[in-house]
Amino acid sequence: MADPEALLATLRHTERAYRSLFEMTPLPVWVRDAETMRFLEVNQAAREAYGYTREEFGATLAHIAAGELPVAPLITANVGIEGVAEAFEALASPEQHAKILVEPWHA
Questions:
Q1: What is the DSSP letter of 65?
Q2: Distances in whole angstroms, Cα of residue 69 to Cα of each of 17, 28, 38, 66, 73
Q3: How many CA atoms lie within 13 A of 85 on its CB side?
């Protein structure tokens, strides 16, 4: 059996590496709890891109989940899996699209 202290050291090293990747990526990234819809972590790129603090991210999602913030007007298209590549291209034009939902069952 492996040395518990060595395993713990490896785990800590891996966690630091992934946290660094999460924080340093130039892409907006967040982690949320699938059951509670609560944001667990939001990277700096997301905070800068959307102009929200960590706390505001959490409050916004809570308002959406409670039905207090209408999101339907923001959805500009629905696509199936086959339309994902085109959706990313379309999102490059904010005048055309704001939010595209990917629905795997959508044809």
A1: H
A2: 36, 22, 15, 8, 10
A3: 1
Give the C-alpha distances (Å, rounded to integers) separating 102 from 10, 26, 80, 87, 98.
Answer: 37, 23, 6, 9, 13
Q: The tokens of 40 are what?
A: 């667990």
What own/partner pairs with CB < 8 Å and gap ≥ 24 does 67-73 have? 71/99
Q: How far apart are CA 61 and CA 92, in angstroms?
A: 24
User: 97 pLDDT exceeds 70?
Assistant: yes
CA–CA gap between residue 94 and residue 84 (Å, rounded):
16
C-alpha 36: how far from chain center: 15
Taking CA 98 as the corner, what is the angle to CA 61 and CA 38, rounded to the nearest 5 degrees?
15
At 80, the amino acid letter reads G
Neighbour count for residue 77 (Cβ, 10 Å): 16
pTM score above 0.70:
no
